[in-house]
Amino acid sequence: MAKVILLSGSPRAKGNTMLVMDACAEIIRQEGVEAEVISLHDKKIRSCIACYRCGELGRCSIDDDGLNEIIEKVKAAEGLIVGAPVYYGTARGDLMSALQRIGMVAGRNGRWLSWKVGGPIAVARRGGLSASYQEMLMFYFISEMIVPGSTYWNIVFGKEPGTAGEDVEGMETVKRFSANVAKLIKKLHG
Known about the structure:
Elements: E1 3-8, H1 16-30, E2 34-39, H2 54-57, H3 67-76, E3 79-87, E4 90-91, H4 93-107, E5 117-124, H5 129-142, E6 155-157, H6 168-189
Parallel strand pairs: 1-2, 1-3, 3-5, 5-6
Antiparallel strand pairs: 3-4
């Protein structure tokens, strides 16, 4: 069965980003595609050091807090959705470090992210959503991934844990996006 990995970049185990990822995972499952939500909340992810050893090793040379296991799950999946809380107008640093390392490992080992389906989702109280969404899109495009659209950009407003669910338009947008991810995966791998 096809699978989508949903990576939550929030430091909160039960915050708004995880609420959004769980809702998206449920939609993907309803479309008949497996979904696994992985949280970075309890992990310390270092930044890529551009040592390029991943080309020799087939994995990242930095062995911290399970990122290599996450990389293997992403490699085996047909899709990847990432969700980031917005801090000071940008996607949270841990998530961007993880994406850069995932991209480096994939790029140095046959470009295995190419033609995987997915996209980013930005979650914030108020500002920086569009910039964060665009920042994360760079990872998808340089990796030759396929990003389906929705009825609006994949951004959700919420401050206190649980309030993202009150952003009706934002939640409908990311749910439709998630359904489109699953539908496209089924078309490509059906």
